Amino acid sequence: MTSAVGRRSQIISLHTIPSADWHGPFGAAVPGDALKALESGRVLYFPGLAFSAEADGRELFLSGLVDQKAKNISYDPTSGVVKGTVAAGRERPRLQEMMKAFAAAAAQLVLDLFPRYAGGIDRARASYRPVEIAGREYSPLKDDKRLHVDAFPSTPTRGRRILRVFSNINPSGKPRIWHIGEPFESLAGKFLPALARPNASLAYLLAAVGATRGRRSAYDQLMLGLHDSAKRDAVYQASAPREEFAFPAGSSWMCFTDQVVHAAIAGQYALEQTFYLDIEAMTDPGRSPLRVLERMTGRTLR
Ligand code: SIN
Ligand code: FE
Asked: pTM of the entire structure?
């Protein structure tokens, strides 16, 4: 196992962008280099890009705001609806305002950096993660402390990319600790051979009963298979190569979480915005997990 704790300059899975603004213009070389790094599976790290919750927003820094049954608080930027919280009274509109402002900032950041994505991108949910990760107990498949690539059981993407922007807003300066694992191809090479063949009838059934939003493609089934088998494999979890990085409070980062092997180990109070991106909007769709898995299986998966 490689660990790079405390040796930040050697973290090769990160590409650092010094900007402290959620909007452009960015320096001439920034977007081109960033796009290449992002699509090749690195994490874009913005050490000075802070998202400030309101000055008197202290009531938002309470882990008890999350509904016990939910993992995070979610915000739908299209409808403005907040879910997964027990916040009532004056916290509720404040929470909604904070998440709305973050969703807007994250969208502006992505589109100002990568205007070519504009034609193929959709904003999905934003989330607020006020619960400490360390010590939180989940079943293996729900445990994001284990290395994985993202794949959503109820939301098939049919090959679209999952792009996520994160910001650590911890008010007491605590970092958010991530492990960043091996390249996607290496993880896929280990787990793909043992996966069950995609099952079209099961996918049809799940969609028909409303268990999935639309039908899972063969691609979605394989991605879920990779997610699940990596998380279930104790030997892989203990021995897979990884770099550890502590994202400081007041910093932000983004990556394709369907490609970057990652685990969130510790930290409290982060905001996140998810986007779905057509692979045709990428500079190199050949780097998408869809195309990688199609090459590896010799099949069309969409
Ligand atoms: C994850 O996507 O696995 C969790 C990331 C985080 O909450 O920092
Ligand atoms: Fe994840």
From this structure: 0.95
